[in-house]
Design a protein that fits this description.
22% strand; alpha/beta; Ubiquitin-like (UB roll); 5-stranded mixed beta sheet; Rossmann fold
């Protein structure tokens, strides 16, 4: 260390030596750089300090890039709303769900994910509004979701959003939504993108349950029986089906029968 440094530099250097966190080291290094004398004898020292600072900041950015935020799925499916600032994401969320996000004319009003629940004919779909900052940690939520809604005002917005999806290698079920689209049409598009079906279970001699069991498309009676209770599969005799997949009402079927959306299923065990 040059002997002609200032007292302020020495104090800053001591802070650096005593620093316990990366952030404290960065702050101390910046102070050291600002207090290094400007004469020629300290040019090498200043250059070394700047290199050290740049390395520390790069490490900080790398750590931030690896940070992941997750939101536990609540309901039958989860979809995220992505849009540029002032695209109407908060308005759409409040229109489709029970959420009451802050709506403003100012850019970047939403600074954290906003969550609401959309009811689609008995199916609960969790909708999450992602802030327009598109930070990697926030985009990790969209990467874990079942579908992504792109909300746009014009073609330029849509193209920019697609570029963002490409940047984050986001290859989910994508729904393109204009801010002028009707709420019911948007709900239909969300449901269709999820590739799920609704099965209404019933006991012999009783009416079907009002709340559907939500399953993946191409589900079989075997899948449904396993989901309902392990004994249904273990002691399965046959099932009866009403709906699209049945040749006639109450058709008697086996475990490999493929179910379709809104089918009514009655399992017999013994």
């Amino acid at each position: 260390m040059p002997t002609n440094v200032t007292v302020e530099y020495v104090k800053a250097q001591q802070k650096y030596l005593n620093a316990k966190t990366r952030e404290e080291k960065i702050a101390a290094l910046e102070e050291m750089i600002s207090t290094v004398p400007s004469h020629k004898g300290c040019e090498v020292l200043k250059s070394q300090l700047k290199q050290r600072l740049a390395k520390l900041k790069k490490q900080t950015q790398s750590k931030a890039a690896r940070k992941i935020i997750t939101i536990q799925k609540d309901g039958d499916a989860q979809a995220c709303i992505l849009g540029l600032t002032q695209s109407g994401k908060s308005t759409l969320l409040s229109k489709l769900t029970n959420a009451k996000p802050e709506i403003s004319d100012h850019p970047f009003t939403t600074t954290k994910p906003e969550i609401g629940t959309c009811d689609y004919e008995g199916v609960k779909i969790q909708l999450i509004e992602i802030p327009s900052s598109f930070q990697p940690a926030l985009m990790s939520i969209a990467q874990n979701a079942d579908s992504v809604i792109l909300l746009y005002k014009d073609e330029n917005d849509l193209n920019e959003l697609k570029n963002i999806l490409e940047k984050f290698r986001l290859k989910k079920h994508i729904i393109e939504v204009s801010r002028d689209d009707k709420a019911e049409d948007i709900k239909d598009n969300i449901w269709n993108s999820l590739e799920l079906i609704r099965i209404y279970c019933k006991e012999p001699g009783k009416k079907p349950e009002s709340k559907p069991m939500v399953m993946k498309r191409y589900t079989t009676v075997r899948d449904a029986a396993k989901r309902l209770h392990k004994d249904f599969l273990k002691y399965f005799r046959f099932a009866r089906v009403w709906g699209k997949s049945a040749k006639y009402k109450g058709e008697k079927v086996g475990l490999d029968h493929k179910l379709e959306d809104k089918d009514i299923l009655e399992i017999h065990i013994g």
